[in-house]
Please model this.
Amino acid sequence: MTTNTDVADSKILSIEVLYSDLKKSLKEIKDGDVEVLATIESDLLNPNGDEKENITKALKRLMDLAATRAQAEKKEEVDDNTSKA
Amino acid sequence: MTIPPRLKKLTLSGFRAYLSEQPIDFGKNGSSLVVVAPNGKGKSSLVDAMEFVFSKDGFVERLGKVRSGTQAGKEALVHHAATKANISPFVKVEFIGAAQVQPFSRSAKTPEVIPDDLATALEAMKVPYIIRGFELRKFVEATSPSDRYEAVSNWFGFNPLLKTQDSLRELRVQLNRALNDQTQLDTINGEVKRLTNSQEQQWNEVRCVAWFNDTILTPLDNVLKVDALDSCAGIKKVLFDRAAEALSNESSVLNKTITDKIKQTLGNKVEKVALTVATFSTCNTAIESYKKAQELFSETKNQSEKAIFADVWREAELLFKSPTIQLDNCPVCETPITQTPSKSVDGIKVTLENSLKHLTTYYDTEKALKASKMVVETKIREVKDCLNSILDLLKQTSSSIDLQPIQEAATACDKYTYSGSPIKFDLAQTTLQTLLEHLSPAIPKPQEVGKPTWKSGHDALEKLTGLKERADYEVRRKSEVQKIHDAVVKYASIVDTSVKSYVETLISTLTDKINFFYNEIQTGVEGVPVIHLSFPPGDKKIQHQLDLLIDFAEGRKSVPPAGYLSDSQVHTLALAIRLASICMFNKGFPIIVLDDVVTSYDADRRKAVVDVIATHLSGFQVFILTHDEQFYRFLEDQLTPTQWRFKRISRLDKTFGPRYSDHQVLDHEIEELHRLEQSAANLMRQAEEEWLNKIGRDFGVSIRIREIGKEHSHQRHELALALHTFLENRSLFPPTVPGHQNPFLLSLQRGLIENFGSHFQSDPNSWGSVGDEKIRWRNFKEFREKFACTSCKGKRFKRPDSLNKPVCKAQGCEDQFAFT
Model:
């Protein structure tokens, strides 16, 4: 019984630790997207703050990221064409 | 390390059943407390006080904040007689010093906000700490899975984790929505539709290129052809150059227009231009005519000034109508005929005829002058308009010729005063002639309306390449959003798995503890079911629902408990859940209130509950309220007296509140009332009874055991008789109190039965005055003083069974009792 209580107590106290463990295990994923993960970490893996506001912030960041990447892709294409020419 | 708070004292005043201020002391270590009392004696007021003083907003849930339906509202917190008795209603809590939480007194009328130190301490109280027997079963029977989930997630505090899960899920949904959003493509398609005059409905590079070739390029040049928009730079350049050339031709058109205008102004014959258009020369010719009309008018005006005017003529008309008339005087000036210059009637007639002719000429010349002025006005306006028009057109050219003379000529037209002098157009004329020499008169081939031009072809191709760029960008952007969406899904899946595993571990720990408590209370019962708290089956996400199920028997696994357990088992399950959760989550504020929780139990279960309390709630300050004497006795037997206090509410005094059996009326309470000239009869009676109880207990007097249910309700006369008998049997005779007539004391001395209401006055058939009460109280106190140790003056005695007479209880004294 005592053991159970102790386990529970340690778990109850470790919610912050769980967030930290969670971040660690997400970072270890192969083929992960570092920029996407950074957004999730900063805006969503966080016990505080307004939920809706955080989602809006994260979505905006990710959409900006998609736009930046799409533009960068075009630039690469142009650079490739220029160098070929 | 923070020491968890424990109550040192709880004070109630004017609150619920408690009218007068009553402190309940838990000692310096914060002992636990058992209160036993029959129903309706004020037990629940203690529970209400605890709930009230620790609640966020200062109210008791079962009473509600406002009076509504069956709820009495906040007004029921205040004792109904508190206002009349001028008692301020409040509950005060004091904590043991080590907890470092300051005392807090809260008014029942206008509850104060909980101070920060107590609020911080209360944050550790995650699970409702008051367990009321009557509502215990709700968590088992009436709580929905989502409410149960809500409660448990609050206890564990894992809501932030689940919020993270929800947020990730919502983020995925929104990214998916962004993937399916067609707004950009719709805009592009709309532009395609407009560009192709609805021949194409949506963006398709091959089809749009075909449209361009067929509709735009071929009519312009059937050799040119666009194969793909990525490689159309060459054709775009051709279109650009041809468009520039066409633009140059358009400049020529402008020059032609200006030239024509100038020619008009200068009076040259211009192709397709009406001959009536004003020129400088026609303007000045008109001015010249106007000048002549002016001169003629001036001349006739002089002559007409000398003429006889119409009114004079009317006088003279008779002369012409009657040729034979003989006049002595001139009909106009009445001068005698002979004295007029003509000296005859005929002579006057000739003079009048000449005057008439002058008047007619004057009228005609004035008319001609006005007409001439109008012509001049028209001509000047036309010249001015021409000049301004030329100036406007010239603004569109890159001519470097000074246009000031033209501007001045236009201004001169504007300001012409009709003096008859010609306007000086010389400089303007020279400037216009210079312009004529510079401007190319080349006339381009006119364009056909509605047909594509090089420029429109160039613009359309430019537009198409822009649309392609936007459409391609949109495709790339969508592809990136898709990749991001996939990454979020991957991360969300890991978060889901981790959170679910974590939360399930917590729930499993709680479930183990619930099973443990359930088994403890059900000790000795065979086939105790296994209890499960579990999430409904589903995907990785934690659903916001928590099922409470039991494995009842083979073939009856994971079934709802209410359908299989007996009433008392359901009660036990509910109690086990609450005790398990309080033990797990409220260690930071270890207080439990158990209000009538064993009502539905038999003796074995009651004993089991006592065992659980004694063994597993030792770290908590427990407040047990019960009306069950058997349970009370079990508790008294099992619980350590040093850590527990036992109290009995003997009765509910409407003018005071619950009276505890160990309650002692203090002398000053009575004397204060007497000082205010108020009756203290009830308090005096209480004080006397308390003294009787105390001395009877100390002396070990014999008294008849009361019937079941009234074990502790000895009447005062019984106590008095028992004491009297005890003293008499030991030849201990209380000394008389001089001058007293107190039947109560007499009853003690003589062993008489006396009744309440009769011992404060000499005459048993009348009511005593406050003055009588004061005398009786003084007498009683004098009498009471006789019961003191002759050596140390101590007031407490004891009488072990081996002794006949009591001895002083004071340590180191133990002198035998005797009256002084």
Notes: Residues 797 and 809 of chain B are 5 Å apart (CA to CA).
